[in-house]
Amino acid sequence: MTTKTMPRMRRGLWRCQSGAELVEFALVFPTLLLVLGGVVDLGMLFQRYEVITNAAREGARIAVLPDYAGNVSGNVNARVTQYLTAAGLTGTPTIGVVETPIAAGTQCIKVQTVTVSYDSDLLILGPVFTLFGGGTARIITATSSMREELAATGC
After folding, report:
1. Contact between residue 58 and residue 76 where contact means Cβ atoms under 8 Å apart
2. Staple 134 to which of 75, 84, 103, 129, CB 3.0 to 4.6 Å?
């Protein structure tokens, strides 16, 4: 072989495309997995948000019923916890009940506001975030307000 034919052979090797798809796939695949994991985690977070919103609504409904007026906080906590457990959320929620009187002329209407907070973990991207120093828990909060079903009383 002469020195003139050597550069031609090297150029021929660089022009070969075999294996290029495998290299491109190896570069794109981790990004594709991160995007797919983000979509799954976002879907799970949205599902949990809907469950927590409905649990707050259930708690507010219990708070305004006259039959449960004796122990409002205990009844609301029991109903919200029961709803979350039935939906598959086994963590411990933070539940707050606030009664607000609203003046309507000479009468007062009582409004019960129930706030539910729940720590939700990211299932797929959580371990990735911990590698880079981020946390995995996201706090989801939902609030629901309803007017008591009792007749308005004097302020």
Report:
1. no
2. 129
* pTM of the complete model: 0.77
Is 33 inside a domain boundary?
A: yes
Tally of domains within the chain: 1
Question: How many angstroms from the chain centroid is the CA of residue 20?
Answer: 40
Q: Which token pair is 150?
A: 């009792």
Both tokens assigned to 1: 């072989």
Asked if 40 and 124 count as a contact pair (C-beta separation under 8 A), the reply is yes
Pairing between β-strand 137-147 and β-strand 153-154 as defined by DSSP bridges: unpaired
Using alpha carbons, select from 79, 78, 75, 87 the residue that is nearest to residue 58: 79
Q: What is the domain extent for residue 138?
A: 20-154
Question: And the tokens for 54?
Answer: 């409905």
pLDDT of 6-31, one tens digit each? 555 555 556 677 788 888 999 999 99
- How large is the average pLDDT for residues 120-133? 81
